[in-house]
Design brief:
Blueprint: E1 17-26, E2 35-43, E3 47-51, H1 58-66, E4 73-78, E5 81-82, E6 93-96, H2 108-118, H3 123-136, H4 152-164, E7 170-174, H5 182-199, E8 202-207, H6 210-216, E9 219-224, E10 227-232, H7 234-239, H8 244-249, E11 253-257, E12 262-266, E13 271-274, E14 284-297, E15 301-310, E16 313-322, H9 323-328, E17 336-342, E18 347-348
Parallel strand pairs: 3-8, 3-9, 6-7, 7-8
Antiparallel strand pairs: 1-2, 1-4, 4-5, 9-10, 11-12, 12-18, 13-17, 14-15, 14-17, 15-16
């Protein structure tokens, strides 16, 4: 029986790798590879986010997994099966695009059912399956509306149902939230996480947003210049960045040259005091003068930007202060202050 002929059902997560990349490389005409011999194992039933700046190779990696981009050298394995040279439709993956790519002239129901129509399934059965999936993503009541009559979040749900109807083993998501407004983006990432858990599928999600990756991922893969810089949980990567690039890219870390080497200190671990304190705070390490260059109120905290006088010259630094502490002792633009940190909070960069 065609796999598409039965409704999608949750898949049990296992310890095996759903996706494995072996020395995966992509070269274009330029000398530098877009993806440079990366190795990665993505656990079955996990939510994996590929994260990095524009041009780091994350979208190219996703497209090679999907079969929308040819592989120069290396292999892509899906549940142990080599799919490197297979066409996209034969891989067992489905792609959810940034633009959603819905057919504007078809209803939500017919958009979801379209791939089953292409496989020759009868109208009654394909629409039954499509209706079932639309109900699952809370879109059953809008099944007859066309994409132009739906909001961005509603279109995303339709796109998700359309991807799921093929019963993929792995769902690939290419910047699926970037077109949404900030409020809806937060709402939709919670729904993506819930759907992934309910279905038990492996999700591989490309994003340039550190906040989005930390909110969604079991596993984060941070890429830069076509290589993988670090793989780990959001907690591991945020609290123990492996490289100076990751410390800077993840945000929330200050990279400071103390004269004895570079360290990374989280901005909420930085200690700030008026200039020339009578005595340094007990247990602190290092310390330097700085001038406040920016004050941003963020609700529960205030983010201070500073020009710090490090061992090698002026260095941009940020300090996060709880709102209550800032209210007790406000700091102002142009004010000179003293910065320090506890030794336990300083990571070697």
């Amino acid at each position: 029986m065609d796999a598409a002929a039965t409704p999608i059902s949750p898949r049990p997560a296992t310890a095996d790798a759903a996706v494995e990349l072996i020395s995966l490389t992509k070269r274009y005409a330029s000398a530098a590879p877009a993806v440079d011999a990366i190795n990665l194992r993505i656990r079955s039933g996990s939510y994996c986010c590929l994260l990095g700046p524009s041009g780091c190779g994350k979208s190219t990696t996703l497209r090679m997994i999907a079969g929308h981009e040819s592989v120069t050298t290396g292999d892509v394995l899906l549940e142990g099966r080599n799919i490197t040279r297979l066409p996209a439709a034969a891989r067992g993956t489905a792609m959810m695009f940034q633009s959603f790519a819905l057919f504007p002239h078809l209803s939500a129901l017919d958009n979801v059912a379209f791939s089953l129509k292409m496989k020759g399934m009868g109208r009654t059965e394909r629409q039954r399956q499509a209706a079932e999936l639309l109900e699952r993503v809370a879109m059953g009541h809008l099944a007859q509306r066309k994409p132009g009559e739906l909001s961005g979040g509603q279109q995303q749900r339709v796109a998700l149902a359309r991807a799921l109807i093929t019963q993929p083993r792995v769902l690939l998501l290419d910047e699926p939230l970037s077109a949404l407004d900030p409020f809806l983006r937060i709402q939709m990432r919670a729904e993506l996480r819930r759907w992934q858990k309910e279905l038990g599928l492996t999700f591989v999600h490309v994003t340039h947003s550190q906040e989005e990756a930390m909110a969604l991922a079991d596993t984060m893969v941070v890429m830069n210049h076509g290589v993988i810089e670090q793989v780990g949980s959001p907690h591991e990567i945020y609290n123990a960045p492996a490289t100076e690039f990751i410390a800077r890219f993840m945000g929330g870390h200050n990279v400071i040259d103390t004269g004895a080497g570079k360290i990374a200190v989280r901005n909420d671990h930085m200690l700030i005091a008026p200039a020339d304190p009578t005595a340094p705070a007990e247990g602190t390490a290092g310390g330097m003068g700085a001038t406040i260059t920016d004050v941003e109120y963020q609700g529960t905290y205030v983010l201070l930007g500073l020009d710090a006088r490090s061992a090698t010259g002026p260095t941009g630094v940020s300090v996060m202060l709880p709102e209550a502490r800032f209210a007790e002792r406000p700091y102002t633009l142009g004010e000179d202050v003293h910065l320090s940190w506890h030794a336990a909070h300083a990571l070697r960069a």
